[in-house]
Specification:
heterodimer; A: five-stranded mixed sheet; five-stranded mixed sheet; 11 helices; 10 strands; B: mainly alpha; Non-ribosomal Peptide Synthetase Peptidyl Carrier Protein, Chain A; 58% helix; Acyl carrier protein (chain B); PP-bd_ACP (chain B); ACP-like_sf (chain B)
């Protein structure tokens, strides 16, 4: 294994004022549904009007976040473009499916079909930056972004890339919100993000976002030390994996300066965080993030972005651990250092 | 014919999401591809779909499509000829 991997740049479009560069965590106020919607920037500054007209919302968000991230890192053509998405462009998928029904499987418009494929954002980034190198998209529900990160880490550590653009993106639509509400994903009563952790009710608040990172070997303020994924672990195996993960980095829970948890206010699944905090981090400062961005497959990308912001602002933070899980199935640990 | 061309321009703007373009900005005889509106191959597929959805006209031969989609004028003439047949 070669040297450390650093986070050389990042950019986020989220329900926060995250894209402008002046991030102050602020739970949004919801008007009439449990959806935290992304604050979208002016895309015209990033995408030519002739290209912009054809792109759906997710594509615009993904491409713009990726371009801003590359710009922040001072890189034009990365050695690899790797993304994770749970759903891809839902708007295009829904439009295409509606058209199939409305036009009886005939006279189908090609654009939403092309853009509904999960790797559309990757393709657009590659086209825009004239990048013909490694290009991969992972679609593994709550592990999607994390697999993109893992792939990037492996490329860098094996010496097959000097820098990697890795990101996660997902959007929420009214229709998808309704479908997932049928299987209890969301809270039924309108719940304000500020009251999320005292709600004690089943379900989460829906969210969305596009977050990108440039990972590389060149030193920067924050390093990505490692990532560990577990599918449907027991509490015992999660605890063992956590201990092993930290010891592999010559750390114990007491060495963690900040714990970022994926607590979502969901009474069905938040016990995982209570277990980890009470057993391993009783005296560690802990902060949630899903009252800021909502719950979605690639919300872990927002957590990583938030961790980088905190570490850039606070020198005292030497080791930050992110623990996130998606509806009790996909559990992830991400460790950041200096 | 004039009413058809105006309607066609409105439909093209909507189907292709031509932001900041108004029907009066599109010259009847200006080429739709390359110069003029600067459309591309994906747009040509979208215009074929437009003809099928809005006018129930299916263009079977791609070589025929190239002639039909030259301009708003050629599209309107093609629609008229099909409707008269």
């Amino acid at each position: 294994m070669k040297g450390k991997v650093y986070i050389r740049g990042c950019a986020a479009i989220s329900p926060q004022e995250s894209f402008s560069g002046s991030f102050v965590p602020q739970p949004p106020t919801l008007a009439d549904d449990n959806i935290l919607r992304a604050k979208e920037p002016d895309y015209k500054a990033f995408i030519a009007p002739n290209n912009l007209r054809r792109m759906s919302r997710m594509l615009k968000m993904g491409l713009t976040a990726a371009l801003q991230c590359l710009q922040n890192a001072g890189i034009t053509v990365p050695d690899a473009i790797i993304t994770g998405t749970g759903k891809g462009s839902l708007q295009d998928t829904e439009r295409f499916l509606h058209d199939i029904r409305q036009y009886a499987e005939a006279a189908l418009n090609p654009t939403p079909f092309i853009q509904s494929t999960y790797n559309s954002v990757n393709g657009l980034i590659a086209l825009q930056q004239q990048c013909t190198r490694y290009n991969n998209t992972f679609v593994h529900r709550g592990f999607s972004f994390e697999h993109a990160v893992l792939d990037g880490l492996m490329l860098l550590r094996e010496g097959n890339a000097a820098n990697v653009l890795a990101g996660g993106f997902d959007e929420i639509t009214k229709e998808h919100f309704y479908i997932k509400s049928r299987i209890g994903y969301w809270k039924t009563a309108l719940t304000q993000p500020a009251d999320l952790f005292s709600s004690n009710t089943p379900g989460a608040l829906a969210g969305e976002g596009a977050v990108f990172f440039v990972l590389g070997a060149a030193p920067a303020a924050v390093s990505l030390e490692g990532i560990k994924m577990m599918y449907k672990p027991s509490q015992e195996s999660l605890g063992q994996a956590l201990e092993t993960f930290l010891s592999q980095h010559q750390l114990t829970p007491a060495d963690i300066d900040l714990l970022i948890t994926g607590q979502s206010g969901d009474s069905n699944h938040d016990h995982w965080y209570q277990f980890v905090q009470q057993k391993y981090f009783p005296d560690t400062i802990a902060t949630p993030f899903k009252h800021l961005c909502g719950e979605y497959d690639t919300a872990g990308a927002f957590a990583l972005w938030m961790a980088v912001q905190r570490m850039q602002e606070e020198e005292r933070l030497k080791h930050v651990l992110i623990y996130n899980q998606f509806y009790g199935e996909q559990h992830t640990l991400m460790l950041l250092g200096r | 014919m004039e009413a058809l061309k105006l309607k066609l321009k409105q439909q093209i703007i909507e189907a292709l999401n031509l932001q900041d373009t108004r029907p009066e900005d599109i010259d009847d005889n200006a080429p739709l591809f390359g110069e003029g509106l600067g459309l591309d191959s994906i747009d040509s597929l979208e215009l074929m779909v437009l003809l099928e959805r809005q006018y129930q006209i299916k263009v079977e031969d791609p070589r025929e499509g190239r002639k039909i989609l030259q301009s708003v004028q050629t599209m309107a003439e093609f629609i008229k000829s099909k409707q008269a047949a």
